[in-house]
Amino acid sequence: MTLNDLLRYRRALARRDFRMLWLGSSISLVGDGMTFVALTWLVLAQPDGVQRLGLLTVCATLPVFAGGLLSGPVLDRFDKRHVLAADSLVRGAAMASIPITSAVGAVPEALPYVVAAVYALFRMVPLAGFPAAIPDLVPEEERDAANALESLSFGLAGMIGPALGGLLIGGFGAEAVLAFDAVSYLVFAGAALAIRRPLTPRPWTGPEPAGSGWTVLRDRPLVATTLAFMAFNIAMGMVQVIGPWLAKTQFPGGPQALGLLLAALAAGELAGAALAGGAAVRRRPVRAIAVVQLIAATGFLALLAAPHTIAVAAGFLVVGLFSAPMTIWAQSLRMARIPAPLRGRGFAVLRTLMQATPPLGAALVTPLLVAGMFAPAVLTLTAIAAAPAVALLFRYER
């Protein structure tokens, strides 16, 4: 990373409103990283917990599709500051329900699944709202740095959150971790409301684009990269089940081992985002995305090294290192190609499609693990992640 790269990050963070949004989001993401481990461990403590991991993953991902379809029009119509704050308050209340019920009695067996579903239903609000707000908070020449900072916050929070969550569960219980996440949502709500600049759609000076976010699917580069991301996220949905299964049945350390794996993945994402922000691809972006996706897919093969925790964690590091540039470069591509009045809906549609596919992976891998077919499961998820990258490279070269 060069001095000019660091200066681009500094200029973006020097803009107060962007800095407030980024900091609030980063703190909330730390809480979310802890929450995944906490919810997973609550489910594993139930009878037939391993079999129920797939259900938890479905609850934590499937409602994203419905929520994404609703969030886009809301983000394009109302001030994004208020929408982001309302989302944080709703999800914060959902997280707080588990420590509250635990304090007054016992946590209902179904509550972790309900909380995961509420989280998923509103998840697309910040996932679409943050990138849709970036063009209003930073100038065009700073967008790559701003996109990289968003990915850096995902990587840093994902590295700290799971590891810290695994440690805190052992000392204080999963309920205390969820209480922290509830507080982090309050912080994000306050940060969103502290932004001074209104985040309402600006008047459009060109021809008025079509009013549906689905019109972005007419753009071939956007469609090609979105399909590739959807396939990669199917593989990630499989990993969301395999990781806890390994921590429970193969690795010593229990939740600490799971936290280590997720922290390794996030550490790779952090490093990959830092490098990609200074090496933004403006020419041949689709090919560049395909190359890093193919390399990231090979990292999944490290799962075959189980029960050697360090070797598996090294593979997760590779996956994160090369998947982060995919996100940054594709997001800059979307910002350049989606008209301003459709940014909320466009980002909501594309990110909804990408976030809706992990349940397919969870549903696919759970019966394989129950049947003891671990190696076939790993080879299948690797092939799913790699195949679209190969197809993109073949199409690009032709």
Record the SSE blueprint.
Blueprint: H1 3-13, H2 16-44, H3 49-61, H4 63-77, H5 80-104, H6 111-137, H7 143-172, H8 174-193, H9 220-249, H10 255-278, H11 285-299, H12 309-337, H13 343-355, H14 358-370, H15 374-397
Helix pairs in contact: 1-7, 2-3, 2-6, 2-7, 2-8, 3-6, 3-9, 3-14, 4-6, 4-13, 5-6, 5-8, 6-7, 6-13, 7-8, 7-10, 7-12, 9-10, 9-11, 9-13, 9-14, 9-15, 10-12, 11-12, 11-15, 14-15
Any overview of this molecule?
- This protein is an all-alpha fold.
- The chain is built from 15 helices and no strands.
- It has one domain (11-198, 214-397): Growth Hormone, Chain: A.
- The two termini are 33 Å apart.
- The model has no long low-confidence stretch (mean pLDDT 81).
- This is MFS transporter.
- Its main location: membrane.
- It is a multi-pass membrane protein.
- It is found in: Cell membrane.
Keywords, separated by commas or semicolons:
single chain, 398 residues, mainly alpha, Growth Hormone, Chain: A, globular
Q: How many discrete structural domains?
A: 1
CATH homology-level superfamily: MFS general substrate transporter like domains
**What is CATH's topology name?**
Growth Hormone, Chain: A
What is the level 1 CATH name? Answer: Mainly Alpha
How many angstroms does the end-to-end distance come to? Answer: 33 Å
Mean of all residue-level pLDDT scores: 81
Write the H/E string, N to C.
Answer: HHHHHHHHHHHHHHH
Number of strand elements: 0
Principal-axes shape call: globular
Strand share of the residues?
A: under 5%
Query: Which residues sit in consecutive blocks of at least 5 with pLDDT less than 50?
Result: none
